[in-house]
From TrEMBL:
Signal peptide positions (record): 1-24
Segments of this protein annotated with the region Disordered: 25-50
Name of the protein in question: BON domain-containing protein
InterPro entries the record matches: BON_dom, Lipoprotein_DolP
Organism, scientific name: Paraburkholderia saeva
Amino acid composition bias (Low complexity), ranges on this chain: 26-46
Domain BON: start-end pairs: 50-118
Lineage of the organism: Bacteria, Pseudomonadati, Pseudomonadota, Betaproteobacteria, Burkholderiales
Keyword entries, A-Z: Signal
Pfam families: BON
Length: 123
């Protein structure tokens, strides 16, 4: 029984060692180690930062309008495309929020998924 466990452990160690060796190898020339890895790691971060910044700009623009309760509105940004979700208190605010979002520099498109919030107890 112990020999089977020892064999399994040995096989596991070999698999891990092989995986680490294969993982650490790259197809880059020796003169530029890690150059493409660094470029690849900064590009997505820049995209995420830009998306977050645009999301904040849109949300701030909506918040400046005192007639709209921005606390129930969600803003998602991806490469200039904005998606609005959540609820507003009046049907006229659905289009107004979309127009505000379209007016923010950097916004290329707006998908409006806002709905009108029904009052509690009212039908």
């Amino acid at each position: 029984m112990k020999s089977i466990q020892a064999f399994r452990l040995a096989v596991g160690v070999v698999v891990v060692a092989t995986s680490l060796t294969a993982w650490s190898q790259t197809s880059e020339p020796a003169s530029a180690p890690g150059a493409s890895a660094m470029a690849a790691s900064t590009a997505p971060a820049t995209g995420r930062k830009a998306n977050r910044a645009l999301r904040r700009q849109v949300y701030n623009a909506i918040s400046k309008n005192k007639d709209i309760n921005a606390g129930n509105i969600g803003v998602t940004a991806k490469d200039g495309a904005i998606t609005l979700t959540g609820t507003v208190t009046d049907a006229s605010q659905v289009g107004r929020v979309a127009e505000i979002a379209k007016g923010v520099p950097g916004v290329t498109s707006v998908t409006n998924k806002l709905t009108v919030q029904k009052p509690l107890g009212g039908m």
